């Protein structure tokens, strides 16, 4: 048993959340986690399953950003509903409803024959997201903003070079930075993006995408911010499905320069 599995790994929730989490069994969850700790709350008779995110300091800031985006996105897309949110000077607690279904990754692994239909469903959901009017979105997440954050992460030594994709194994963070600069400037094509549109963050049930999670990076950015991450996730399932993603989304000739740029940028987060 790891520390993450033990009861004492649970955070001490503030009084304002105590009643909402009472009576639940807790299980540590790592799918879709983007820093901090995520717990699945389940097993309470007559009550829906919930998720609790908890983090301190910089992670608390990220959870605060996610809570704001969940509240805004709820009017446009199926996302977890915020049940309770509590922020203290050093901690954040975000209690959310659980979406029904499995992650897109789980479905692709378990149901090989359904893979083309799943890709079509993912592309349809992405089109729906990208169709949200940019003028309605209060969050900016374009590559200029992300490059500034990436530079700060490099300077602080926060980039995990051991987690780089295979084609960039052996690179330093500065190598990635230099590669990004060589691909600039990029023609802007702003839409409302998820920011981390990966197979683990998309929930599927009955052959449809019923929602997305981990929306803390959502905001106005180039559409390839989402396309590149999803395209890269599909690598292990073969180039035919990668090609189908763009065909189903409605792009006949993918912009390889933008793909390279956004995949390199993602290495720094």
TrEMBL record:
GO molecular function: ATP binding; kanamycin kinase activity; metal ion binding
InterPro entries xrefs: AGP_Transferase (IPR051678), Aminoglycoside_PTrfase (IPR002575), Kan/Strep_kinase (IPR024165), Kinase-like_dom_sf (IPR011009)
Keywords: Antibiotic resistance, ATP-binding, Kinase, Magnesium, Metal-binding, Nucleotide-binding, Transferase
Reactions catalysed according to its record: kanamycin A + ATP = kanamycin 3'-phosphate + ADP + H(+)
Domain called Aminoglycoside phosphotransferase: residue spans: 33-261
Coiled-coil stretches noted in the UniProt entry, renumbered to this chain: none
Binding site for Mg(2+): 201, 214
A GO biological process held by the record: response to antibiotic
Superkingdom to which the source organism belongs: Bacteria
Active site: 196 (proton acceptor)
Enzyme class: transferase
Catalytic activity, EC: 2.7.1.95
UniProt record similarity statement: Belongs to the aminoglycoside phosphotransferase family.
Name listed for the protein in its UniProt record: Aminoglycoside 3'-phosphotransferase
Source organism (scientific name): Pleomorphomonas diazotrophica
Organism lineage: Bacteria, Pseudomonadati, Pseudomonadota, Alphaproteobacteria, Hyphomicrobiales
Record gene name: aph(3')-I
